[in-house]
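Lesson 9: reading folded outputs for more than one chain in a single document. The general rule is that every protein is listed as its sequence immediately followed by its structure tokens, and records are never interleaved. Here is the first one.
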Amino acid sequence: MKALIGLGNPEIKYKTTRHNTGFLIMDEIMRHYNVELSDKFNSFFGKKGDILFLLPKTYMNLSGNAVIELMNFYKLTNKDILVIYDDATIDFGTFRLKKNGSFGGHNGIKSIINRIGTDVFDRLKVGVGPIPDRFPIDNFVLSNFSSDELQGIEKMGKVAIDVVDCWLKEGIEVAQNKYNKKVI
């Protein structure tokens, strides 16, 4: 089994913020797989064949709590998950797949690292930057996308379907070689 995990915040007021990029990208992926969600693991959860879909309702800073619940229940290892989330240090429209690394200032990733006990897990970082000069990062990631940016997010979501398909069938290295670039 493999798990696709999108990071975000569950309240409607966060729906179109940069910090909800993981949820927004997962929306496109789940539409493609025709996934129905239920409430499990303190998350919006879905399962299609041997693919698990998780959108933690724990809020960003406690994402690891939901992830570890899912991993324990399904006996997943750190090599079985792909976490999809926003990165304000990467230009909008750019993907960066990684196999490991520090949390890079992202509290959702920090929570996952702390809860699963390792920084070795696959990630799809979705560029939402750059941060404007003298703009506090917290304010930036909690600001809403413009309507043009939301259209871009939808396009990135469609590319993310191909990224996920590649990751599932060929692994992280092949996906990195194909998709670590500006995709829109």
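And here is the second record, again sequence then tokens.
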Amino acid sequence: MTTRPAARVGDAVAAVDTPALVIDLDALERNLQKMAAFARKAGVRLRPHAKTHKCPPIALRQIALGAVGVCCQKVSEAEAMAAGGVHDILISNEIVGEVKVARLAALARQAHVTVLADHPDMVAAYGAAARRFGAELAVLVDLHSGGIRAGVEPGPAALDLARRVADEPGLRFAGLQAYQGAAQHIRDFAERRVASERWIAAVAATKALLADNGLACELVTGAGTGTHAFEGTSGVFNEIQPGSYAVMDVGYGLILAEGGHPVTEFENSLFILATVMSRNFPDFAVVDAGTKAGNIDSAMPTVWERPGLTYVSAADEHGAIKVASGGNAPHLGEKLRLVPGHCDPTINLHDWIIGVRHGTVEVVWPVSARGAVL
């Protein structure tokens, strides 16, 4: 972590050093409130994915609004959340390796920990570690939703693995992990709904098969920002795991709502604040935010509320801004807000999140789980 953040509480936004990760607190809070209200109305538990923000203060705000806990992807990420005061954590991933599994079981003595399994050897390793540390691990059978992803096939294979979990001392069979990652970014609303409905049917059939064999599913959990409205109102899922809704990005801005209009339910609250550092040519500008400040794997950043300015390419430390003829050209030293192309890996590039409201820095949050890949 760097020795100092890009700003201090009380600074004007204009004084924030760049490149910096900035969150509009009003927009963030509206996003958190909207998803919490959806979950309450749908009658499902909300467990936001902390891999998006990697920041315990944001997780605690989500919990204060009714979330039951968070999801994490890695043991180290879960450890950072627990250290930050989060006490109910689902590691929505398979954990393999003696060292990692031991850390997992040790963490289960500090917090309520749930983890995924998709193989009998994994079940045996979890059980051995739980017994060694005198802890209980809740385990979900991870359902394969298609493509090159982890998981076991829905149906009889899931039943067999669930039985193994239920029979393993130190473990508790807790239900099904049913996250369909590929559906989150299907742009067309009707296609996204069809994909979700097919998945919901497969999950429902597996849940019924387990029940017929004496294995009740305490949890059927999954769904993301792109599909929460489908799984959350299905009557099959009783917990949802959206993450990006809190901050949003260019990628999620490309998916469509019913009627072919862009999704506007959640707002862009996250920005990369960048400074124009070169302005010698009329048709382009260079800013100080490149790939080390923002991820571009799924989309380029966009320039917030500046028509005529287009972020067109990124080098390590620089970003190129195309200036349209007659556009509102930026001047040397001007600060621009960039909407990240992909929020999760962008946040992982930064040590600090600068929370602003009405032009002033209100909070400075450490990205405590930055680089937590173990």
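What the second record shows: The chain has two domains: 13-21+264-366, 26-247.
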